[in-house]
Specification:
The protein is of the alpha/beta class. The protein has helices spanning about 10-25, 35-45, 50-60, 65-75, 85-100, 115-125, 140-150, 160-165, 190, 225-240, and strands spanning about 105-110, 135-140, 150-155, 180, 185, 195-200, 210-215, 240-245, 260-265, 270-275, 280, 285. The strands form three sheets. It has a seven-stranded mixed sheet. Helix 1 (about 10-25) packs parallel to helix 3 (about 50-60). The structure holds S-adenosylmethionine. S-adenosylmethionine binds near residues 110 and 203.
Length: about 290
């Protein structure tokens, strides 16, 4: 934080989040404080504000300014085939099970600008499953969702993306899935038509479909325990019997109220499977 900025208390930070919720219905009240402080310090510099109450006045008065703050608070950072080992494990261990469903539904929660959902679509396509799959990709950041729906990305990012695609077990060439247009690339509409992008908040919205696989990666790290618990509860409710959950490299379902309901896949990082329900004396109980 810049030296001339007045330090602020956690109570002031919470007051800002409460005010944003009341004014715009975006609920950041249960995010992890340390990372929220980092985001806000960045916002104070960006808006050239000397104090948090001053920033609060600006964003409450001006919806455009709030839109800019939203870009800082939501951390819209992602890439294709992020953690390639995750996508390789998905291809090898999860896709064979997904193939047993007539029409698998997959939820990418916190999809950002769409690279993760697109990566999944490519894996499903190469495994012959995309045509009968539906991917729901949700986020709270409207700008990110708009970009995601376009499927247009900087050409510069494709070198890293191609290397990660191959490390993730890609069976062709990444460039076969896009058309270069000057400094950008446009991904094939035949991939995008299987992805349904929508606004959905893990903090305030409820489950909207039964799914066989949920990927929610690098999102829970920004939530406090209460909100992690809520999100994991939604995933548990949405997943079918023995459905799969993929998390980010620094995320675990432990310590949540549904922790015992998920088991890690053997020798695979960050992929979990919903445990089978226990049957007691012929009565079904959710474990
Ligand atoms: C760091 S990005 C992760 C993107 C992608 N999942 C990945 O792993 O590359 C975090 C995303 O979570 C979204 N997000 C934050 N809070 C959310 C909420 N309450 N509900 C849904 N998405 C949220 C942000 O808008 C952002 O796009």
């Amino acid at each position: 934080m810049h030296a001339s900025v007045v330090p602020y208390t956690d109570a002031q930070l919470q007051a800002l989040m409460e005010a944003l919720y009341q004014r715009y219905s975006y609920d950041f009240r249960h995010y992890a404080l340390p990372s929220q402080r980092r985001r806000l310090n960045h916002a104070l510099e960006r808006f050239q504000c000397a104090s948090l109450p001053a920033l609060q006045r600006i964003v409450l008065d001006d919806a455009v300014a709030f839109g800019q703050l939203l870009q800082i608070l939501t951390v819209p950072v992602t890439q294709m085939f992020r953690d390639p080992g995750f996508f390789l494990a998905l291809r090898q261990q999860v896709v064979p099970v997904l193939k047993t469903y007539p029409s698998p539904r997959i939820w990418v929660a916190g999809c950002c600008t769409g690279e993760e959902a697109l990566s999944l679509a490519i894996v499903l396509h190469e495994e012959g499953l995309l045509a009968r799959s539906l991917i729901y990709a949700t986020d709270i950041n409207p700008q990110a969702l708009q970009k995601a729906a376009q499927g247009v990305y900087p050409l510069l990012r494709m070198e890293q993306a191609s290397a990660d695609y191959l490390a993730a077990g890609g069976t062709g060439w990444l460039q076969d899935y896009y058309t270069a247009e000057h400094a950008t690339v446009r991904f094939d509409a035949r991939l995008l038509e299987h992805i349904n992008y929508a606004d959905h908040s893990l903090a305030t919205d409820s489950v909207f479909a039964e799914t066989q696989l949920i990927c929610c990666r690098n999102v829970l790290i920004y939530f406090n325990k209460t909100l992690q618990d809520r999100a994991l509860g939604l995933f548990h409710e949405s997943l079918c019997h023995r459905g799969f959950l993929g998390l980010g490299s620094r995320e675990v379902p432990n310590f949540s109220s549904v922790a015992d309901d998920f088991e890690p896949l053997p020798e695979v990082a960050k992929l979990y499977r919903k445990r089978a329900r226990k049957h007691v004396s012929g009565v079904r109980h959710d474990t």
